[in-house]
Amino acid sequence: MFLVDMTFTDIEKITVELTNQHKCYLEKEYKAGLLMFGGRKIPRTGGILISKHASEQALKQVLDLDPFINSGAVSYSITEFIPVMAAKEYENILKQ
Questions:
Q1: Which of 27, 47, 70, 76 has the smallest C-beta neighbourhood within 10 Å, fewest atoms?
Q2: Any residues with CB less than 8 A from the CB of 68 and at least 6 apart, and which?
Q3: Across all residues in the chain, what is the average pLDDT?
Q4: What are phi and psi of 31, to 5 degrees?
Q5: Among the residues of the chain, which ranges form H helices?
Q6: Gap between the Cα atoms of 62 and 26, Å rounded
Q7: For residue 46, which phi and psi values (nearest 5 degrees)?
């Protein structure tokens, strides 16, 4: 799994329209089950995504076409992790 930390690099570019484009673009990844969670940071300096793409390269290919990234409004960093503990309702994501 991967944690994607997105950081606003040009807040002036973060518009309602660009945000909607970003959400619409990522929707197919959620529908495919490759993105699990996503949301805003508080304070609103960017966002976080939790991904279960097969590889970091596959995830980067998706992120690099994201309207937030393409516009220059957002940068990102990726941290790979292996979940080893979970609340009962999320145990299905643990690797065996």
A1: 27
A2: 6, 14, 18, 22, 74
A3: 94
A4: -60, -35
A5: 16-31, 56-63, 67-70
A6: 8
A7: 155, -150
State CA 23 to chain mean position distance. Answer: 10
pTM for this model (two decimals): 0.91
Closest CA to 49 of 65, 64, 34: 34
pLDDT tens digits for range 24-71: 999 999 999 999 999 999 999 999 999 999 999 999 999 999 999 999
* Contact status, residue 19 vs residue 91, Cβ threshold 8 Å: no
Residues with Cβ within 8 Å of 23's Cβ and at least 6 positions away in sequence, in order, are none
Rounded Cα distance, 18 and 6, in Å: 15
Cβ atoms of 56 and 80 within 8 Å: the answer is yes
Set out the domains of the chain in order of their start, with CATH numbers: 2-93 (3.30.70.1060)
Peptide bond into 67 cis (omega under 30): no
